[in-house]
Structure prediction request, 265 residues.
Amino acid sequence: MTIRAPKSSKASITKPKAAPKTAAAKKPKRYKSAYSPAEMEEIFRRFSIQRPEPKGELEHVNPFTLVVAVALSAQATDAGVNKATRALFQIADTPEKMLALGEDGVIEHIRTIGLYRNKAKNVIALCRILIDEFGSHVPKSREELMRLPGVGRKTANVVMSMAFGIPTMAVDTHVFRIANRMLMAPGRTPDEVEDNILKVIPDRYLYHAHHWLILHGRYCCKARKPECERCVVADICRSPEKTIDIPAPLVELPQQIVGIPAASP
Prediction:
């Protein structure tokens, strides 16, 4: 007797459905600035000529004092912090020496800085963590730095760049204003601006970029009113707040700059 195999059902020959694409599989969209790559290259080329070696203005003697200075600079000016920390760092330039001063000792030196009581408390707590968990050394990673009291993302980025030479973008009030005002990398929050601006700054200019933007905002593109007559990129700038009308540069941007104003102090 011949035994016939049963006929296959529809279900048995149905092809398996392809797995749905996950969000991780999607390619991230490239942020589109108001400027072309060539224009961004020219903007930062000019900044590099105006200030070939830009420096942060917070005074410090080592990575530890830099962390403390940047933490103290929240809602305060660099000049005000420097005035308060000069004497402090002469007697306490390590976590152990700062811890020995105690909160009251720190307060005596930083009383002229806003929120000094809370900042002194953070400095002492920061010292304890550095001693207990990091062998009195300032960590290099953003995640570890942000574990320190009074250290946020901006502070961590500043320390990574200035102390360890790691290219970062510290978005302070000046960088935030420039990125939005110039339509370079608009964002509603500092984190948004950081994400967007890192996508448009030419790689070879990234290391000094945050200092150039901070100094440009502090001395030229000021909060109350931009001083466009002194600006080295006024002809490229697309800000609706421009105070002077300068013809846009040619499509092929010039390779030499004539009459760049001297760098501000």
Remarks:
- The longest helix spans residues 116-134.
- The two ends are 104 Å apart (CA to CA).
- Residues 141 and 160 are 7 Å apart (CA to CA).
- Confidence is low (pLDDT under 50) at residues 8-16, 19-28, 250-265.
